[in-house]
UniProtKB/TrEMBL annotation:
SUPFAM superfamilies, per the entry: PDZ domain-like
Identification of the protein by name: Zinc metalloprotease
An example Gene Ontology molecular-function term: metallopeptidase activity
Pfam families: PDZ_6, Peptidase_M50
Enzyme Commission code(s) on record: 3.4.24.-
Source organism per UniProt: Flavivirga amylovorans
Domain (PDZ) ranges: 176-279
High-level lineage: Bacteria, Pseudomonadati, Bacteroidota, Flavobacteriia, Flavobacteriales
Subcellular location field: Membrane
Length: 442
């Protein structure tokens, strides 16, 4: 099976699970409060359904357009825009006839399920598979440092001892701390074995994002050329697979991070590669692409440059640790919004293709559930945004009603729903348009 089909199958299964359970979060409290649910659909049934069956008052079905799913609750102004029903006298089994607190619970049910599901999956991942982690010396050659991090005292070959006084083995990924959390201090172990405490500014995440120095630190590894991409600058300049790169513009190249640093921070358009070809030292002049690529792929000459330890969890330990992972997943995801609302951040928003690429190329249940847990958290956060047509929009109007004692008029709600719907369509088109643009132009 092709990589595309494997990733597509995982994406489809993950989203199907999340959509069905999210809609169940609305469906169950609606039924508890004796509110009629007219439709329960996985995917959208524009014009026709792949499958449908009516049981009681509810039609259960599968649509053909895989962009989510929905439950249609009687007496509720939603994306169906059923104004004919709303023009009739309210019935006791309709959403609009229920007390505000019941309607609020019904609307919050979906996102509550998303968050609970994310927490539960994280717990089960730790219980079933445990987790891999790294000690300070498991990064054999230390880290390669970006120009941004050099400003704050980091040096090539540094190893991380602790972050915010939390031992490296117990801390999350360093990039996560730098981009989304507050970092007070980072202890590093120098090549000579000495320990030094370094501090970074509060806006280090913004600096890294704007400079493109992400990740800020990467494990160093000695390398040789594995392949040279046809029609890229290196191939056009005559670089051979058997060539050993010695330096770029005078910077010695011992590790792959040395090469990426030299390319990104070149001072002139053209670079001079000093290579050893057999026993001869040659100079090759290359003009990299706009994104500082020359079209080579490395392979480590020492595959033990990064090692992992493994930790298993008891059921009780998995509960507390899973809760911690879920909490930080929500917090870190919310922190991403500070970058999204920038020109550069907006250009990096992705749609279904971007999400699909996150899944592994071969079927791996641990990786599948890890990503599904993250997507569940993500959907919960996004659905809480106060945009009409999303759950958060309905919650916003219900809270207004509870505080003011006044219910927004049906006509106002219809217009708000239409505006929210067009905002969502625009966002979906923009995100997936970014995917198409990147696929075409790289």
């Amino acid at each position: 099976m092709s990589v595309f089909l494997v990733k597509a199958a995982q994406l489809l299964l993950s989203l199907s699970i999340l959509v069905v359970l999210h809609e169940l979060g609305h469906f169950i409290p609606a039924k508890i409060f004796k509110t009629r649910v007219e439709k329960f659909y996985l995917f959208f049934d524009v014009k026709f359904s792949l499958f449908k069956k009516k049981i009681g008052d509810t039609v259960y079905g599968i649509g053909w357009l895989p962009l989510g799913g929905y439950v249609k609750i009687a007496g509720m102004i939603d994306e169906s825009m059923d104004t004919e029903q709303m023009a009739k006298e309210p019935q006791p089994w309709e959403f609009r006839s229920k007390p505000t607190w019941q309607r609020l619970i019904i609307m919050l049910g979906g996102v509550i399920v998303n968050f609970l599901l994310g927490f539960f999956i994280y717990m089960m991942i730790l219980f079933v598979w445990g987790e891999d982690y790294q000690n300070t010396d498991d990064i054999k050659y230390g880290y390669g440092v970006t120009k941004t991090m050099e400003q704050y005292g980091f040096k090539d070959g540094d190893k991380i001892v602790s972050i915010n006084n939390i031992p490296f083995a117990e801390a999350d990924n360093l990039s996560t701390y730098l981009m989304f959390r507050t970092v007070d201090n980072i202890e590093v172990k120098r090549i000579d074995g000495s320990i030094e405490s370094l501090t970074v500014p509060e806006d280090i995440g913004t600096q890294l994002f704007e400079s493109g120095d992400i990740p800020a630190l990467t494990p160093r590894f000695p390398f040789k050329l594995d392949s040279i991409v046809p029609d890229y600058p290196a191939a056009k300049a005559g670089l051979l697979l058997t060539d050993k790169i010695l330096s770029i513009n005078g910077r010695e190249i011992n590790y792959y991070s040395d090469l990426t640093y030299a390319l990104k921070n070149k001072e002139e358009e053209k670079i001079n590669l000093i290579v050893q070809r057999d026993s001869v030292v040659k100079t090759i002049s290359i003009i990299p692409t706009e994104d500082n690529k020359i079209g080579i792929l490395p392979i480590p000459t020492d595959t033990s440059y990064v090692e992992y330890q493994h930790r298993d969890y008891s059921f009780g330990e998995s509960i507390s640790s899973g809760l911690s992972v879920g909490y930080w997943s929500i917090k870190d995801y919310l922190a991403q919004f500070q970058y999204i609302f920038t020109k550069k951040g907006a250009s990096q928003i992705g749609g279904f293709a971007a999400i699909g690429k996150m899944f592994p190329a071969t079927w791996n249940w641990a990786a599948f559930w890890q990503l599904t847990a993250f997507l569940s958290i993500m959907l919960g956060v996004l659905n809480l945004l106060p945009i009409p047509a999303l759950d958060g929009g309905h919650v916003m109007f219900l809270l207004y009603e509870m505080v003011s004692g006044r219910k927004p008029g049906d006509k106002f709600m219809e217009y708000a729903q239409m505006v929210g719907f067009f905002i969502l369509i625009a966002l979906v088109l923009f995100a997936n348009g970014n995917d198409i643009y990147k696929a075409i132009f790289g």
